[in-house]
Specification:
151 residues; mainly alpha; 7 helices
Length: 151
């Protein structure tokens, strides 16, 4: 079997097993990531402290721009359901870095809400990588031009 055939089978399975309530979780996830991107851009003090601690300031500047762009644009795309899986693929490395490198410095205690929110968002991103964008999405409207998206 080739990869394209397997991807079509997974996509067909996800389309037939995608309850509508998952669309609302996807929209909420996209809005959450968009807001995190806005907060990241607005919090320049934390950004400068990250760059000052880094041994490679140019790399950290590039990563900061990547994180901001991926959260702002990717969050919007996930919320509206436009190229959702691609937008999720750009988010996953950021969340893996947050879960394994950034947030564990503060420990796994219950007050470390950033770590727990990063873990939850990572799990939800992986779920939507599998399930796709759903019925209430631009992807669905592009794929199926019929008027059946409400039914």
């Amino acid at each position: 079997m080739n990869l394209t055939h397997d991807m079509h089978r997974v996509e067909h399975w996800a389309d037939t097993h995608h309850p509508i309530w998952l669309d609302f979780i996807r929209i909420g996830l996209g809005i959450f990531l968009l807001m995190k991107g806005i907060m990241f851009v607005q919090n320049t003090d934390a950004l400068f402290s990250i760059m000052q601690k880094s041994q490679f300031p140019w790399v950290s500047i590039g990563l900061a721009h990547y994180v901001a762009f991926a959260h702002l644009v990717g969050g919007l795309f996930i919320a509206i359901g436009l190229i959702t899986r691609v937008a999720i693929l750009f988010q996953i490395p950021i969340l893996l870095g947050a879960v394994f490198f950034i947030n564990p410095e503060h420990g796994f205690y219950s007050e470390n809400t950033e770590l727990w929110s990063s873990i939850i968002v990572l799990i939800v991103l992986i779920a939507f990588l599998i399930f796709g964008s759903g019925r209430f999405s631009v992807d669905h409207l592009i794929r199926k031009p019929k008027r059946d998206w409400l039914y």
